[in-house]
Write a structure and sequence with these properties.
Blueprint lengths: L9 E3 L8 H16 L7 E4 L1 H9 L8 H16 L2 E2 L5 E2 L1 E7 L10 E4 L5 H9 L2 H19 L4 H15 L9 H19 L7 H15 L3 H10 L7 E7 L10 E6 L12 E6 L5 H4 L5 E2 H7 L1 H18 L3 E8 L2 E9 L4 H13 L5 H8 L2 H4 L6 E2 L9 E2 L1 E4 L2 E7 L2 H9 L4 E5 L7 H6 L2 E4 L7 H9 L3 E3 L4 E4 L4 E4 L2 E4 L3 E5 L4 E4 L4 E2 L6 H13 L3 E5 L3 H9 L5 E5 L9 H10 L3 H25 L4 E5 L12 H14 L4 H13 L11 H6 L1 H22 L4 E6 L5 H22 L5 E7 L2 H5 L1 H5 L4 E5 H9 L3 H14 L13 H18 L4 E5 L6 H9 L4 E4 L4 H16 L2
Parallel strand pairs: 3-4, 16-17, 17-18, 18-19, 26-27, 26-33, 27-28, 28-29, 29-30, 30-31, 31-32, 32-33
Antiparallel strand pairs: 1-2, 2-7, 5-6, 5-7, 8-9, 8-11, 9-10, 11-12, 13-25, 14-24, 15-19, 16-23, 20-21, 21-22, 23-24
The structure holds adenosine-5'-diphosphate (ADP) and magnesium ion (2 copies).
Length: 887
């Protein structure tokens, strides 16, 4: 019942290959591949992910046939090794290693030296004539088995070891002799009995079964579950278990264990493998920081033959995988063994360099490099300052690496204070237990964000990623003392204003100013990758820009026009506010028009600037969108002013006059109130003025440069075709009036934003009046899901993500099933009546790689995103095209 008859649940290493990751996990598939390549890999077998799933589904019972299959493979291993598990004279020892399809911290740790017991340890000692080694291996096994399989606290073993070292005056474990280790073993076994109520298991096959069960069950532990959720890994994959003959790096001075990268993973430089190793050590000693490691180069002096073979092997692995590898190796008495290889993690700098070098080395085509070696999300890091890892001091604390890049600043604990200091030009890091939407202004003002609680889906993380700001979250070592305006972090006390550095790429926090590497805007490797992407992609990439400065910056990043220029800021700056207020409060049409006439020159100048910056490229300008009361003082504030004035008998006629009008304009739910095209229908003069200003600016720039700007006027929040018909007529009339007056001819398009489900569902009708559609996927997400973004993010959305109600933040990655479907329906309907209609998307989804992929699949003409994400979108669009061709 638990397994299908005839399904193979165990594979010998020489039966698998690197294409079998689904079944064998990443580690198992790669160990099999290395075996296939004839590399020196200790023999063993892999129990499949399917066996794991079967075990868990059956309520933690081995699937039918699994024990027998394990017996068979174990017998084969024993035969090959010429040793038997549990043989008291010459025992076969194995490691039990977990390995899922995707590398996953949080899974069970590896158990080494399994098979030892009180008798076979003596056999091993005799056989190797190395008593110290045998005892050292056994005590490691008791500790690992106790910790990993039986759940005895690791710290208890470590404390016993540290006590012994101190008592014997030993500088490191390697200085403990056989007698010391015998004492230690006795202590360890006592700790084991205390912790479990049982004696340490002596039967090797029972040890093995217990370890296999523990690996299976670790798939469901909390850490593993959380990691999968954060990284979008499905929960039903299961983990494989690798059982492998032990080789020993702890037999003496001609033995060692280590890890290495085939090229530099920080810079990407080729031909310089680097890594760390320890002589006379085992397994995780290297990464555990127990002793100071030596760097790979020194291995050449210590064990030259093994070194040469390792370097040669690494080169072969690179040629096989056609990617930088991260390997684990052990040397036993001068002989090299390979224990693991995988594609190595790398910095953004290294990523782009390696992608180019692999092409130059003839290992990949440009398209293959683009598709497989470039993570567009990481590209953005190239534009952010990064921690200079090589020269960084020691971190005081570590948390979740929530948003990449590094930042330096003085600590502040309140959003208002962050804003105050920020406005004085100070660099600050906002430190909070956790953030809420009320902290937004402080987050904007800060260089980076640091929180004591929360992970990658916390409000702080989500907002920081959206803003492209470094953030470290969930640093448990922080405690903020509100009363004192101070914090302690990792035992250090910091007052407001004290400088810290946060590294959102690694999650580390440093006291003081750590060295940063400034981004190189003209990274030549990135330049080449962008060329490949531009050659491949079908989607155009525009930018969202409201000012000439942003437009110019985005153009520098390769933007091919503006997909969304919002005009509301043009109503807010300096002396304009007062004119706008006068316009809104005008008693009659004449007074209103007079105010609008005064506003128009400002708008004209703004538009001229943008047209100049985007000369030769299309510019989509959205007419006024937010409700007008946003330009008036808030009702609460004004009511207070009036109340205070009345109570204190100090008349405030201005406030008194304003109050009834503000009350009248107040809306219960402004997001769904008088905004977008509803505003244009209520107040056509506002849209007419904007259209006239656009037309005038276009004439001016044409007269100046001889080139007419490519103008697209966009009417927001349309639900009914009739709204667009009416407003299009107003806009065209206003434009034509200007063109007649100026005696100029300028082509311009009039279109709409699709951001309401009704507009999407009636897109054929709407399209009759539109030259283009731009999907406003932010509002379309809000109106399709009925989520208010500000209320969702950091509140219930966090819970939704944690509980897997939805797979991703729909404001970051488009909800394909709902919002995406509306986009597809609307595109089909519109193209059905107007085949040539231009279709694009604006809103931050335009810079999110999976959403860009969606836009490509949906056949849109362009995406538009913030300037800093233009390069990300270009690469994502190129990858989508390459992937579709299956190149
Ligand atoms: P992780 O996924 O945590 O890296 P591994 O399964 O790779 O865990 O094991 C960690 C380390 O244990 C390896 O790098 C290696 O040093 C050691 N190890 C595992 N299996 C063996 C073995 N059969 N012989 C010797 N050392 C081993
Ligand atoms: Mg580990
Ligand atoms: Mg490993």
């Amino acid at each position: 019942m638990t397994s299908v008859v005839g399904v193979k649940l165990v594979y010998d290493f020489d039966e698998g290959s690197r294409d079998m990751r689904d079944l064998l996990g990443g580690k198992g598939a790669n160990v099999a591949e290395m075996t296939r390549l004839g590399l020196p890999v200790p023999r063993g077998f892999t129990i499949t992910t399917e066996a794991c799933i079967g075990y868990l589904r059956a309520g933690n019972r081995f699937p039918d046939g699994l024990p027998e299959e394990i017996d068979g493979h174990l017998a084969r291993l024993e035969e090959q090794a010429g040793k038997r598990l549990g043989d008291p004279e010459d025992p076969l020892l194995v490691s039990v290693r977990s390995g899922a399809k995707f590398s996953m911290p949080g899974m069970m740790d590896t158990v080494l030296n399994l098979g030892l017991n009180d008798r076979s340890v003596e056999g091993l000692a005799k056989r190797t004539a190395n008593e110290r080694f045998a005892l050292d291996s056994y005590r490691r096994f008791v500790q690992m088995f106790g910790d990993v399989v039986a759940g005895v606290e690791k710290a208890r073993f470590e404390a016993a070891l540290a006590d012994l070292r101190a008592a014997r005056g030993a500088a490191s474990d390697a200085d403990l002799g056989p007698d010391d280790l015998r004492d230690l073993l006795a202590t360890y076994k006592r700790i084991y009995r205390d912790g479990t109520g049982e004696d340490f298991p002596q039967e090797p096959r029972a040890q093995l079964d217990a370890a296999i069960r523990a690996v299976f069950e670790s798939w469901e532990n909390r850490r593993a579950y959380d990691y999968r959720r954060l990284n979008g890994i499905p929960h039903d994959l299961g983990t494989a278990v690798n059982v492998q003959q032990m080789v020993f790096g702890n037999t003496g001075p001609r033995s060692a264990t280590g890890v290495a990268f085939t090229r530099n993973n920080a810079t990407g430089e080729a031909g310089k493998p680097f890594g760390d190793f320890l002589v006379n050590a085992q397994g995780e000693d290297v990464v555990a920081g127990i002793r100071n490691t030596q760097s790979l180069g020194e291995l050449r002096d210590v064990l030259p033959d093994a070194y040469d073979q390792l370097v040669e092997t690494m080169a072969l692995l690179e040629r096989t995988y056609r990617d930088m590898q991260d390997v684990e190796f052990t040397i036993e008495d001068g002989r090299l063994y390979m224990l693991q290889t995988r594609n190595g993690k790398r910095s953004a700098q290294a990523m782009v360099r390696i992608a180019c070098d692999m092409v130059d080395e003839g290992l990949r085509t440009e398209e293959e490099s683009l598709r497989d070696l470039v993570d567009p999300a990481q590209v953005r890091q190239l534009l952010l300052p990064q921690l200079d890892v090589a020269n960084a001091p020691e971190a005081v604390a570590e948390g979740v690496n929530a948003s990449p890049g590094a930042a330096v600043g003085g600590v502040v604990f309140e959003a208002d204070e962050a804003e105050r200091r920020g406005s004085l030009g100070e660099r600050v890091i906002l430190v909070r237990d956790e953030t809420t939407p009320d902290d937004l202004h402080g987050m904007i003002a800060a260089q980076g964000i640091l929180t004591a609680r929360g992970g990658k889906t916390s409000h702080a993380a989500i907002v920081a990623v959206g803003m492209g700001k470094p953030a470290v979250c969930g640093v448990g070592a922080i405690s903020i003392d509100d009363a004192d305006g101070a914090m302690t972090i990792g035992g250090r006390r910091l007052a407001e204003g004290d400088t810290i550095t946060i590294d959102g790429t690694s999650g580390k926090v440093f006291v003081g100013e750590a060295p940063l590497l400034e981004p190189d805007p003209d990274n030549p490797y990135l330049g080449r990758i962008l060329e490949w992407a531009d050659r491949a992609r079908r989607l155009r990439v525009r930018t969202n820009a409201d000012t000439p400065e942003e437009a110019a910056q985005a153009r520098g990043f390769g933007a091919e026009g503006i997909g969304l220029c919002r005009t509301e800021h043009m109503f807010r700056e300096g002396e304009r506010t007062e004119i706008v207020q006068r316009m809104i409060l005008a008693a009659d049409d004449d007074a209103r028009r007079e105010a609008l006439d005064r506003l128009r020159p400002f708008q004209e100048r703004d538009f001229e600037g943008i047209f100049r910056a985007m000369a030769g490229l299309p510019v989509t300008i959205r007419l006024l969108d937010p409700p007008l009361h946003e330009f008036l003082p808030s009702l609460v504030e004004l009511s207070e002013r009036v109340a205070v004035a009345r109570a204190t008998g100090t008349p405030d006629p201005e406030a008194e006059a304003l109050l009834p009008r503000v009350q009248q304009m107040h809306e219960v739910n402004p997001m769904l109130g008088t905004r977008g095209c509803r505003l244009g229908i209520e107040w056509p003069d506002v849209y007419r003025m904007q259209a006239a200003a656009i037309a005038s600016a276009a004439c001016t720039v044409k007269e100046e440069t001889g080139d007419a700007p490519l103008v697209e006027i966009m009417i927001p929040l349309v639900a009914f075709a009739e709204e667009l018909r009416l407003l299009r007529a107003e806009v065209v009339d206003a434009c034509e009036t200007v063109l007649r007056e100026r005696g100029e001819r300028i082509e311009y398009a009039v279109g709409t934003m699709i951001e309401l489900p009704r507009a999407a569902l009636t897109a054929d009708e709407v399209a009759a009046h539109a030259d283009f559609f731009s999907f406003g996927t932010n509002d379309l997400t809000q109106t399709t899901l009925g989520f208010s973004r500000d209320d969702a993010e950091g509140k219930f959305l966090t819970r939704y993500l944690q509980r897997n109600v939805i797979p991703a933040n729909p404001f970051e990655t488009i909800d394909r099933g709902g919002v995406g479907k509306l986009v597809e329906v609307a595109s089909d309907l519109a193209r059905g009546v107007k085949p040539g209609i231009k279709l694009g998307i604006c809103g931050e989804h335009g810079g999110d790689p999976p959403s860009v992929r969606f836009c490509h699949d949906a056949g849109l003409d362009y995406v538009s995103c913030s300037p800093y994400r233009v390069q990300v979108a270009r690469i994502a669009a190129g990858q989508a095209a390459v992937d579709e061709r299956g190149g």
